[in-house]
Amino acid sequence: MSKIINKEILSDKVVKIEIEAPRIAQKRKAGHFVIVKIGEKGERIPLTISQADESKGTITLIVQKVGVSSHKLCDLAVGDEVSSVVGPLGQSTHVENVGTVLCAGGGVGIAPLLPIVEAMKEAGNKVISVLAGRSQEFIILEDEIRKASDEVIIMTDDGTYGNKGLVTEGMEEVIQREKVNLAVTIGPAVMMKFCSILTKKYNIPTVASLNTVMVDGSGMCGACRITVDGETKFVCVDGPEFDAHQIDFDEMLMRLRAYKDEEADAYQSFMNNK
Amino acid sequence: MEIMKEDTTYLQELRKIAWREELRKSIPAKERTAKERVSMPSQDPIIRSTNSDEVNTGLMSELAIGEAQRCLDCVNPTCIDGCPVNINIPSFIKHIEKSDFLGAAKVLKETSALPAVCGRVCPQEVQCEATCFYTVKLKKAPVAIGHLERFAADFERESGSVSVPKIASDNGYKIAIIGSGPAGLSAAGDLAKMGCDVTVFEALHEIGGVLKYGIPEFRLPNSVVDVEINSLKQMGVKFFTNFVVGSTASIQDLRDEGFDAFFVSSGAGLPNFMGIPGENYSGIMSSNEYLTRVNLMKAAHADYDTPVYIGKNVAVIGGGNTAMDSVRTAKRLGAERSMIIYRRSMDEMPARVEEIEHAVEEGIEFMCLNNPIEYFANENGHVSKVRVQKMELGEPDASGRRRPVPIENSEYELDVDLVVVSVGVSPNPLIPKSLPELEMTRWGTIVVDEDTMQAKNVPDVFAGGDIVRGGATVILAMGDGRKAAQGILNYVQSKK
Ligand SMILES: Cc1cc2nc3c(=O)[nH]c(=O)nc-3n(C[C@H](O)[C@H](O)[C@H](O)COP(=O)(O)OP(=O)(O)OC[C@H]3O[C@@H](n4cnc5c(N)ncnc54)[C@H](O)[C@@H]3O)c2cc1C
Ligand code: FES
Q: Which of A80, A260, B128, B216 has the least C-beta neighbours within 10 A?
């Protein structure tokens, strides 16, 4: 059981919660995630650790309402308990000073991008962040990202905020303008796929952080498997970050659809019963 | 109580006790051997394949006593040699024969930490029942030792008078157990009895390891496992779930927190895949994923959030217990066809014989001497067909089983919408990764001293169960746990 210490509503769909988890707070590094389970009947969902406060013994998660479980978590109040929080899981981000890092986050991917942006900045890199979303309401954590970036470019599909266009357009503008030593991309699989195609064209080493379906998060089930450079890898233990140019995004996209229907139905009935 | 394998005088002593002598004489051996082996009452196959209740319903007292009467109480009880933990089998069976069921349970508990579990899941046909006098000398069906073990353990549990073992006074040693499967639970029990302060760390949100997330309810009800866990709690064992040793805290952190020794029982939880084309299509998953969704996450219950794909045409690849559990689970979840695809023949299947028999009764299709070589998917990337190649048996391989060889031009395709891959597991690498000085085999198992279960190079670390043996059995894991408990006690005492 882990108590919720703080909760901040960032937008209609995005909530920031601070949870008591002293051991995890002590051990976590950028890129790590936790598996959270809400209630006896809840499922186990992976969430990136956004921040941690070692002295307070807390970790912060940024949760976007996308399905039943994330919604349930967002609905919890300060003082409520999260049934299980386990971690830190996965491999932490490889952080070093490489020069200029281009960080591209789309929609749900902005939350897990934040700790990486912060870590890259802290390591002395010049960090340029490109945040993208369908429209203004999908651009989250802008202030936090700004704080840790040298420059922030906002892209929306409908032009309601920032520049109108895709994340890749914002990235390409930077790439053509200056030398980029490393790109990091987190977001929907399709987005990462196109970011990866773009950076490959320019030969820029690129890391993608994957958010596949998971069950245990400790390498036990293989639900999170993907193909990287022709080899099957488990995202929860071998990842979540991989060389984007080696990831078989098409296969990943296909696997992500596995429970789409069940999840849509479950979400519908959850919302109907709310 | 330490029982040495070589020293069997205690067996003879116990056998000479007056009531045993009397009991032996009460029925002539001829009459005993003329009796038929009891058959385990079970739910009707048609009914049970639509529910998740336990298949075997257990022996009634009269049946148990009748079966106990078959046991000849041999001078040289060879059955014990077949038991990996050397349970005093004739002693517990004779207690049943004289209707002292609680006494029988007590005998079991001297050696086995989880008799109600072992009575249900041990492969008795290759252990104690294989070396029973009936099998070896009389060429008859062996005494149903497993059924009787389950009977005694269930009787004790249901009687409500489960004996909580005596605990030695606090000896001041603090021991950490990593993983809460049968190896960890049995080590915890013994160490607590010895007076140690025992903490069990478990990565998942439930205690029990494979007993909870793997073996289904219809074969091993969770309530049976929970009774054992509760009794450990009563003995003072502490449990921390959602705690991954190596991530949440390292072994060094725990040393710094005052733990004197560690027992690594982290199992062989990593699923193997075959590496054939199309294996990552959706609708294809490991048996660990399938069983975890259904057993641990209760995905088939509408009010639980975790989803599971409900297959119509389900193919399970493999012939072990895990494969049987998966295919029978699929049947229970409403599959129209539930098929086992196994590359050797029925005779080589490593699953318990009883599970294979039950599966056959339930209408599972067995496609033996068949091997999948490729999967195909529909336009959504969901598996739709499997291409299968027929096999024949060739020369025996290293394991002594005849090696399956593909028959050329024998491939055919089969419609499937759910495939469960159950072709073995590998040791969990988390602990070895966090303790690089540990000596490992090339299969990723931890090298230990056979008698003490102590790891090489890291004296305060002991290990047992599947992390040492690869995918093995509950009883072997349990035996390791008990050996390690003794090894750990000797080690911590010698150190201070
Ligand atoms: C479906 C299935 C059916 C089976 N049927 C039978 C049968 O009928 N008869 C039989 O004898 N055997 C059977 N087996 C095999 C048997 O279950 C195993 O041999 C036995 O459970 C091994 O016990 P263990 O204690 O070594 O490990 P496990 O039971 O695997 O337990 C290991 C535990 O450690 C935890 N863990 C791992 N790493 C860490 C870490 N770093 N920190 C904290 N916790 C950790 C895991 O989450 C797990 O709970 C079956 C196995 C499966 C999967
Ligand atoms: S989530 Fe189960 S192996 Fe990665």
A: A260
